[in-house]
Amino acid sequence: MPVFNIHHITKYQYDRPVKESVNEIKVYPFNSPEQHILFHEINITGHPEVMVSTDYWGNRIGMFNLLPAHTELVIESKLIVRNNPPEQELKNFFGDFKKLHEEVKKQLSLIELSSYEKLQLHDEIRMIAEKIKTSEEIAKVVENCSQFIFENFQYVKGITTIETTVEEILEHRSGVCQDFAHVMLKILRYLNIPGRYVSGYICPNKNGMRGEGATHAWVEAWIPGYGWAGIDPTNNVWVTNRHVKLAVGRNFNDCSPVKGTFKGPAMQSLSVYVSVGYEDGQTFEEMSRVKLEKQVEENEDPDLLESFAGQQQQ
Fold first, then answer.
1. What CATH class does 90-253 carry?
2. Ranges assigned E (strand) in the chain
3. pTM for this model (two decimals)
4. Residue 307 has pLDDT above 50, yes or no
5. Which of 60, 90, 170, 281 has a CA positioned 20 to 30 A from the CA of residue 163?
6. What is the pLDDT of residues 89-111, one digit of tens each?
7. Over the stretch 218-229, which tens digit does the pLDDT of each residue have?
8. 171: Cβ–Cβ under 8 A, 6 or more apart, which residues?
């Protein structure tokens, strides 16, 4: 049972003072038997009061308002977590589509998470879905979907953003973990398999998984007779005790680690630092920078609320 020391810093900087920054953070570890939280501390610029609640999907969320003028906002999370191996009993991993249909119709959230919204590239999704549905066993179809994405999409950083659409990812067949999770969810939902987006971290190991040491994203699929099972299409593996889960939802927007608004016409820049330390003292670090800008139109009130985006997951 590995113990990880995770340090996650999100820093927004502005070219002029802004004020009344209202924010939502989802950097709290998800409550599950696979994760034992030994320590968690959050530090925020100005030390505002953080109101913590639970959202529709069971995520812990924090809300705060930084009222005074400021040119920098830093949100720091320090987490120590012990991970247990996922309790995936193979005897409960063989539910088929008939059993899935019986379970889904009894739960509103599963109906919602299996609902498919048609894309412009609908035929592409249909073609992939037909190719991977080689069995009536849900777990096998989910595995096939993960393998298809792993083998047919290139892992390339910097060519997509949090606003990149599934259609764009399908066209250039490349991206990062966030993109692959969104594509996989579309395919699963086309087949009426409930799927949910998962945000968190993937901690490094000797296998050198893609996306390790940074904020990461994967998918959970509903396996009848078992429940939610995590699978990582970026690395084509079922989730291991190297995955630390923060939040779940329909897509990235439900799980963004940080998002909010502020007052002022400032341009902003975003940097994200993540380090993962081990009991033996080894540390893995990654820093990423994203420039976020919004131009103020000629007739626009510069004191109106401007939104800033969350960080892309790698």
1. alpha beta
2. 3-25, 35-44, 51-54, 60-66, 70-83, 154-155, 174-175, 195-202, 215-223, 227-232, 237-238, 243-249, 258-263, 268-278, 283-292, 305-308
3. 0.89
4. no
5. 60
6. 555 688 999 999 999 999 999 99
7. 999 999 999 999
8. 121
